[in-house]
Amino acid sequence: MTSTPDAHRSGFACFVGRPNAGKSTLMNDLVGSKVAITSSKPQTTRHAIRGIVHREDAQLIVVDTPGLHRPRTLLGERLNDLVHETWSEVDVIGFCVPADQKVGPGDRYIAEQLAKVARRTPVVGVVTKTDLVGKQQVAEQLLALQELMDFAELVPVSAVDDYQMNTLADLLVSQLPEGPQLYPDGELTDEPEETLVAEMIREAALEGVRDELPHSLAVTIEEMVPRDGRDDLVDVHAVVHVERQSQKSIVIGRGGERLREVGTTARKHIQALLGSKIYLDLHVKVTKDWQRDPRQLRKLGF
Ligand SMILES: Nc1nc2c(ncn2[C@@H]2O[C@H](COP(=O)(O)OP(=O)(O)OP(=O)(O)O)[C@@H](O)[C@H]2O)c(=O)[nH]1
After folding, report:
1. Is the pTM of this model over 0.80?
2. How far is the CA of 24 from the centre of ligand 1 (A)?
3. How do residues 226-239 score in pLDDT, each as one tens digit?
4. Whose CA is nearest to atom 30 of ligand 1?
5. Half-sphere exposure for 168 (CA within 13 Å, toward CB)
């Protein structure tokens, strides 16, 4: 098939990289809306949340995969399955390595997995967070990246400085097949609202909590319905699941103060997402070993 220079392109992209590489931030920046969750803690992104970049010449659907890691629990295995599934379905993969950290075993592990699972998917090497280092170090990082695997393209970017974000979008788009728009204009995500709402609560609950809580926290939406007789108010009933009583106390805080803050923060974000006022009812529940129990995992959406 011959390719017309001005043809419309459409397809899927995802970002891979070790935890904290800046994948979620990149995706948010590309799609211009907060649909994935960023946090200063590693491995907070659990769902394959899609954002859509609409352009005159292309539609790029970005799938955000969880950080790949060597599985230690059932949850870890499920997450990795999800990652591999995503890799073989997309048209292009962005492999993120932060500029301020040496290329290491974590990156090599991902490169090996990519070579195994997605040999035919083009990979764009992305050096992220270039604002944190000097030019020389960016150049060295690009060279180090080149040693990792065969990249279709290499590009340094900074989401914080908005440096080369358009170039990155161009490079990803150039790898897409010709095709029509797949989603209507203005639609930023096809993730169910409830999943996004749950993620926003999870993000708020994680904020400022030290130690290993990220893996011990899940959120379910029990009910999300418009208030009777009102078209401007939605009632949201949600449960924050933790694994131990001690974690429950951390999330709730002294006199319930922390949970109130979590509620306030989450409510603000959810209202922005849904475009209506919400009443948020939050409960914290100890769901023992939810990470290891297949039934609980299913219930919590994994
Ligand atoms: N200075 C700087 N920091 C960044 C940039 N992009 C992301 N960060 C920070 O790096 C941290 C991790 O970013 P995320 O986008 O959550 O990283 P991730 O790769 O999605 O992480 P996981 O979900 O754990 O896999 C956050 O604290 C971001 O604010 C950047 O361009 N410059």
Report:
1. no
2. 7
3. 888 877 788 999 99
4. 129
5. 28
